[in-house]
Amino acid sequence: MSAADSSSTSSIFALKNSRPPDDTVFYSIFSDACLTSAAVAAVSDELQSLHLQILNHITPFTDTYIWQHQPFSLSITLSPIPHLSGHLRFGDNLDDEWFVVFLLFEISKNFPNLSIRVWDSDGEFLLIECAFHLPKWINPDTSINRVFIRRGLLHIIPQLKFRSTPKLEDALRILVGGSDDSSLHAPDAVQLHLNNKISEYPQRAYRNVHKVRAIVPVSVAWVLRHEPYLISLAVEGFYDRDIDSMKYASRMERFLPRGKEEEMVEVVVRMSRAMYAQLVQQKFQAPSCFPMPERSNIRMYLEAELGMKISCGFEMIYQLRKKQGGEGKGSTWEAFRDSLERSDYFEGLLLGSKEYKRLMEKAEGYYQNSSLQARASEVLSAPVKRIDEVLALPHSADDFMNLELPPSDDDSWLYGGEDELNAALQERQMEMDSYNLKQKNKHKSKDQQEGDSASGNNLDEYDLGGIAKSMQSFIEKISSYEGAEVPEDRNLKDVDFDVDQFMKDMETVMGHRGSKDNDSDLDLEDGLSSDLDFDDFEDDSDHAEDDEVGEDEFMHSYSDALNKELKATTLDKTFVHAQEQPSKKNDEVCYTCNI
Predict the structure, then answer these.
(1) 63, 442, 487, 529: which has the highest count of C-beta atoms within 10 A?
(2) What does the DSSP 8-state code read for residue 559?
(3) Phi, psi of 350 (to 5 degrees)
(4) Tens digit of pLDDT for each residue in 142-168?
């Protein structure tokens, strides 16, 4: 996808009404210059030049890297806002996604006049990564068109700039005009967390590449020598195989035409760790036409088994793509030229005119340069054509003889990843605990402030009669399986019952009564501390005993009133009656709800 394509599906605008694939990351790069220029040809020239500069800059980072499914690429999208866009399917290899994030930050550092967006099916996954450090107002609804990468920093456009969701163009103009405005930067804690994550790359991405010996047919070895990127398609073909594709593997017509007579050679294959795991951890019976060594030589057998899976993957993906036909569409020169014409790149110029030829020569030069820079993308988009070209070249087993091959990389990580997983989980847990502790301290401080404010109020201001009426109205409701109901012959008047306020008032009353009974001269603040600061309440044992006395008196009074009310209704028939032991007052009936 090296050529410009105005209908690129990687653009955010093409996906805004549909959910992106779960294993794909999308990105858009907006140039400041494209916001001020209206001419299509001028904008195209700017984006073509920028495209080539970016590819030249990131090639040293990506040249030897093996991507899980497809390499990092960019294409030109001219509407509704001209920009560069791309998408990359990372599949089971999350390192690919974060390697893309590293590349985008690297681009933003070296091209200061760019604003970059990146997202996946989860939305703004950079914000998700820093969830414990975000301002409270940030959520999936309020973050739309507010999150950008610019000059190596994450930018979050605050609500002070736009109360409602901003238009993309307006948001970009805010970034352009406020390059030195620190209020547009994400909080320092967010920047620090992201920097710690991204600082692991590109070294972590390089460590993710696994080298292993394998015994394969000469044809497979020849293809991998010329196009090592095709290993991703081979693994994909093997891992995603079905009954139809396995029929091709049973015959191996393209890569094992002579069956067991085909020459086999030993090579070193580079792949991602995820690819290696996908190959090794799946059981697969070798086709009858595939030569396999004896199991007595364990090392050789394992190398041959791995090579067999790779070879079958090549055969399946080759035959499937060949059957589907039309590969490479959208990446050929013809397709690129058509996209230029649709976007009015030639601005209505007469075919064959001097200006038309000039624009055409520039477009041809851009296409050739971008194709060279994005060779991996070209190969992966047209594997059948490229495989046929490679296998048409003369080759034999002698090309792979007497080569000093490095040993296979240690694959203990495949079986001993528990420590790494536990370390990652522990890091997340520590981050969560730190966040919870901050929230707890914040709430505690707020409660103490409210307690100090409430302690100055006179308890006599509470309307005890209002509390009693509210309780009486609530009790008189008749309950059914559908909830509280009012009989038809009653006055249908809703009861406004605030549970939180009720409990707070009751605790306040109990504390007040306990203080009166003991003729205490204590400040009323001590009476309120029971619902504001549990630690202080527990430390003051004398006050606790006084409050318990007041609470007992109130609960006896409340229980008598409740029992009397229930006996006058049919509600008590819905309860199981459990007689308590006789007390010195009388034998009271305790009602236990039969649920």
Answers:
(1) 529
(2) H
(3) -70, 130
(4) 999 999 999 999 999 998 899 899 999
